Amino acid sequence: MSPNPVLPPENLDKDTIRSLHSTAVAHRVAESAPVLRRYEESLLSFIANGSELDLLAIRPSLVEVKSRSPEERLFRYATLHWTIPISSGYGRRLRFLVMR
Fold first, then answer.
1. Phi first, then psi: what are they for 62, rounded to 5°?
2. d(C-alpha 90, C-alpha 100), whole Å
3. Cβ(58)–Cβ(26) under 8 Å?
4. Which phi and psi angles does 61 have, rounded to 5°?
5. What is the pLDDT, as a whole number, of residue 96?
6. At residue 59, what are phi and psi to the nearest 5 degrees?
7. Of 29, 37, 91, 100, which is least surrounded by CB within 10 A?
């Protein structure tokens, strides 16, 4: 064991955490962007602009994201815009979209 322990930064606010993950997020975007860019226009049609929202008209539904489905593309596209990367992980992963 190293005599110099690895310690997390003292200030772990959201901006610090985002900054720590920024390289991983940028790598994931660069890796996935060429494929998803082909579908970007159609994927954006599923994402509302804040000014377009009518909160009283929203009737959300939970949609399971299945492998190789249009929903999988939308899920991948959305996760690329998160400031914290998601891990590939091991084992079974359940993915869902909340859609209206």
1. -95, 125
2. 30
3. no
4. -135, 150
5. 92
6. -125, 85
7. 91
SS3 at position 97 = strand
Residue-wise pLDDT for 39-53, tens only, equals 889 999 998 888 888
Q: Which two tokens stand for residue 31?
A: 């890796």
Residue type, 99: M
Name 75's Cβ contacts closer than 8 Å, sequence gap at least 6: 65, 95, 97
pLDDT, tens digit, 9 for 90 and up, residues 42-85: 999 998 888 888 889 889 999 999 999 989 999 988 888 776 66
DSSP 50-90: GGG--GGG---EEEE--TTSHHHHHHHHHHTT-SSPPP--S
List CB contacts of 40: < 8 A, sequence separation 6 or more.
77
d(CA 100, CA 93): 23
